[in-house]
């Protein structure tokens, strides 16, 4: 008899659309990879646990052997029941043996679970952790184009699929095949090839039908996974942009877009369940025909006197014993196929290429007073649209260089290249220590240093500060996780946010919410400044660091930023020219080129782009001052 099986409802990913203008979206992580390739990818993770795997397999085989003895003992018990009362001790012994056999089956099965549980959990953890680390190692290009929820879902499903694949293949499908062979051998040994022929014929028909129909059904499972993925991407993207949805009153628009994906998911799930009904019905019919043929032959043997009632019970018990795993075989195969599908997507993430990699022999960067130089740097996010064109400048040890210009001129790209989120297309970026001016040496290119050491020497206060959904304390501590609480509070004081934090009901343990939405823009930026201060870097980058502050707060923070920049090599990216007046050198960028450079006074005297921007901003400031505070 067949037990109706149901497919697990596939779950899916979130979303984060392509944030790089002019860049092509990154392809989905899943790659065309065969099942044997998935197994080859998985084997290195299993190798350290080969002993446990072998022991668990031995326990499974022991359980199957114990299960094989149950019908044999039952047959003997029934045949020996028709004896003189004085000989009743023999059936009692057989009853004890029967109970012991059934207990042994459960004992060995549970022992296998105990032995193998650690293997499944540990392998799943190691694979998932490796994928997580690999994702963090990928370049910014991948992360700007990824579907965040989709990636998260692929990792989640893949981690679960590892346990499913190991459990179904090693400890269900293989032992079931062994059990079928053992039962067939016993039937041939005790009776004749007729029973074996019926058993093997039924098994062959069942497997052929199951595999062919399951292959047909797999396309609908894949479609359901894809539809579920897109639906969740849409839902998460909409929820992450909740405020924008409310600003424009587009709740129904978002609901319709979400429902479009849900309709596709619904249709895929309906087809998956319809084809499941076909599979279950066909499996039941094949098993029923096989059981009927076996029982017919056994009953005929009893009538003819060539078989006892015990023989009939034995054949029936073996048929029932085989029908259960046979009924499960279809579900096993389906689960294995689905596990392979999910693992393809998981290992597909590991196939994503790291655009920025450490060179062989990369050395750690160790600098206290670094000199930074951009030498004839050219760069494009997309080959069709160049962002930086032959950019050259130098920041002296402990000096400050400011970069100003209109939006899209390439200012923030300088910081991304210095962090090695991308590698330059031409030219190079040089970091040397102290007064060393040997820029023609090959050992100073930042590509010759390890990425971790380069980024460890730099701290940034970005224009758009995104915080972790954790406490204020955690977000400041993130700058240097090994710092003490006193150092965290000292950094908060330097960023002029300590008093605000201690005034909150939960103080430093106050939750900031997702992406820091519980804090104002200015408060988030102060947390980012405190985090950068705590890192205590040799190189500082301020990317519009005071853009979210009011004029009074800006002056206070700017004075503090000027103080902490002393002795550090500092790159300031700014829109407000009043914040860069004291820089050692100011670079004016336009369309990816440096069109002017010099001090504040020199640039004003030149009367070019900078002077024009200065006059415009001064006029805006005077107009705001004359207008005064606006009524709420």
Automatic annotation (TrEMBL):
GO molecular function annotation: ABC-type transporter activity; ATP binding; ATP hydrolysis activity
The record's annotation in PROSITE patterns points to:
ABC_TM1F (PS50929), ABC_TRANSPORTER_1 (PS00211), ABC_TRANSPORTER_2 (PS50893)
Ranges of residues in domain ABC transporter? 372-616
Q: How does it sit in the membrane?
A: Multi-pass membrane protein
User: Which biological process, per GO, is one annotated for this protein?
Assistant: intracellular iron ion homeostasis
GO cellular component terms, semicolon-separated: plasma membrane
* Transmembrane segment boundaries: 53-74, 168-189, 195-213, 276-296, 302-324
Keyword RNA-binding: yes or no? no
Where does the UniProt entry say this protein principally localizes? membrane
Q: Which InterPro entries match?
A: AAA+_ATPase, ABC1_TM_dom, ABC1_TM_sf, ABC_transporter-like_ATP-bd, ABC_transporter-like_CS, P-loop_NTPase, Type_1_exporter
Entries under Gene3D superfamilies matching the protein: ABC transporter type 1, transmembrane domain, P-loop containing nucleotide triphosphate hydrolases
Q: Cellular location of this protein?
A: Cell membrane
Q: Name one Pfam family in it.
A: ABC_tran
Q: Which residues belong to any copy of the ABC transmembrane type-1 domain?
A: 54-338
Keyword tags: ATP-binding, Membrane, Nucleotide-binding, Transmembrane, Transmembrane helix, Transport
**PANTHER family of this UniProt entry?**
ATP-BINDING CASSETTE SUB-FAMILY B (PTHR24221), IRON-SULFUR CLUSTERS TRANSPORTER ABCB7, MITOCHONDRIAL (PTHR24221:SF402)
Q: What is this protein called?
A: ATP-binding cassette subfamily B protein
Q: Which organism is it from?
A: Luteimonas cucumeris
